[in-house]
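Board notes, transcribed. Complex of a protein with magnesium ion.
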Amino acid sequence: MALLQIAEPGQSANPHEHRIGIGIDLGTTNSLVATVRSAQPVVLADDAGHNLLPSVVHYAEDKTIVGYAAKDYLESHPENTIVSVKRFMGRSKADIRFQHPYTLHGNDNQMPSFATAQGDKTPVEISAQILAVLKQRALQSIEHDITGAVITVPAYFDEAQRQATRDAAQLAGLNVLRLLNEPTAAAVAYGLDENSAITEQQNFAIYDLGGGTFDISILKFSQGVFEVLATGGHTALGGDDIDRLLLKHLKQQWQLGDLSNHQHAVLLQLTKQAKEQLTDAEQTDIVFENHQYNLSRAHFATIIQAVTERTLQVSARVLRDAKLSITDIDAVILVGGSTRSPAIQNAVQDYFKKQPLCSINPDEVVALGAAITANQLVGNQNDGHLLLDVTPLSLGLETMGGLVERIISRNTAIPITRRQEFTTYQDGQSAMLIHVVQGERDLVEHCRSLGRFELRGIPPMVAGAARIEVTFQVDADGLLNVSARETTSDVQAHINIKPSYGLSDADTERLLLEGFEFAEQDKHARHLQEVKVEAQRELEALRQVLAKEQVDLLADDSQALQHAMQALSQTLQGDDLTAIENAVQDLKIHSDELAAKRMNHHINQALKGTKVDDWASFSQNKE
Ligand code: ADP
Ligand code: MG
């Protein structure tokens, strides 16, 4: 056969220049940027040493302020100081049913704009402001160009919300390597993907309690790929609610009546402080005006019980959705600043009957996981266990007879490199057309053509002697590079293709379904084509031998052979598989006879000192 399979999956052989990837956690309350330095993921701090950047943007008439400094305007300029913009990303005005202090412009079915002192600002623009500050921070700290960024999004984010996040990153001048689910990033930070040797499935619960949102996701890890089995949460449940519960409790204890806005803000700040102090201390004193209150950890836990219980109810529902029970969970990861509270950690541990992982700072863990992924995606780590994305459709190339030779099957984890060897069809063939296709069907005409290129300058050889190594390489962005190399002469050619370019989800779906639907029909078509190609090849080889050997064409046996050849040529015009197979059988009888006779003749010649090379190579090719 013309195809010799050598396939050796391996990693990219191309040496890379120094490439920098950053990971960004674009959070509702806080955002962070991280990178991998000397093989360690690290969060990058600002000049003042802050790791977190509050996700707050203040629009003054003459300037835009982001982060801690923007928070100072929350009380005085609430309309111009945007907090929690993440809640607005990819949402239409009609979707926004929660309370907020902003004036929104735009149609009901569009993403709204915020009316600010600098005019209308979309959620995408506001998020881009936050991202731009993080990018600047990274540039300053790394002192090197940034190749690309991995940005995390909640697992429940839909296409519109993801697209809005991508748009924001683009606007901030970031090259998005990938959007990564926040729970997946947390699992990567804990290295839970490094046990890829384990073949059985592992399940992880990622419990994320942030400032204003709660998310719980159940991830399945199997064969190097994370899959979100179920996700759920509450868009208004988080640290802010804990602060509110504590404030309410204090007001009751101190029998405070209505507070002024300023008093309320001060007390809220105090409760937040007390909450955070109880993370390290057994008790704390809260002093407000002429009141004082001593709060213990245990008491704090009972005050915020409503929040913890609510999160565990959601957890139970998500576990049910994933069709798993608590005992199926191999590890629980704590994410989000609020899980630093021992009160929360204990509640989670009691519920899952397992000590949760919290050795990595829970408000940094997502950014750190994103940094690790970014580092792998830019190609700095070639140990091959970053297997988070898969090819949606199979990739292959056209072989003789319009058939598809599949090189990379669909659902193969990327990045991936596959190599396969091909050979020439005709004697003296000096060029080869490499036609790259995508799809699940067996015939080229039913697949999607991705591109063509030619490999020229193949040294003349008999059919089947040239060795052409074709390499398909899909990088982490899904970009396909196909190269071809003739190994004896080292002539090369290649092409870069973006397989998903112009391919909608609906197209992908259709190509996939067709693959299943026509599987039987394709099997037949492939077999027919293969038989035809092989018959053509045999006919061609025979013709050449007859021409070369100066066979006595009038001899009976050679006339019968020529008849059989003509009969086969005839049937090859049609698609009658049985007729073709019969004609091939018939021809074989005559060609074998002739071959035996010729062989004897050649051996006799050889004994007289004549070479047998030609005939021998012909016989081999018939195998
Ligand atoms: P998000 O993911 O929503 O952007 P974060 O993960 O940064 O939010 O969490 C912010 C929340 O974490 C705030 O409510 C903050 O009060 C809370 N938090 C931060 N540090 C602590 C701590 N030491 N103990 C308890 N809560 C904390
Ligand atoms: Mg978060």
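Residues 27, 210, 336, 366 surround magnesium ion (ligand 2) (CB under 6 Å). The mean pLDDT is 85.
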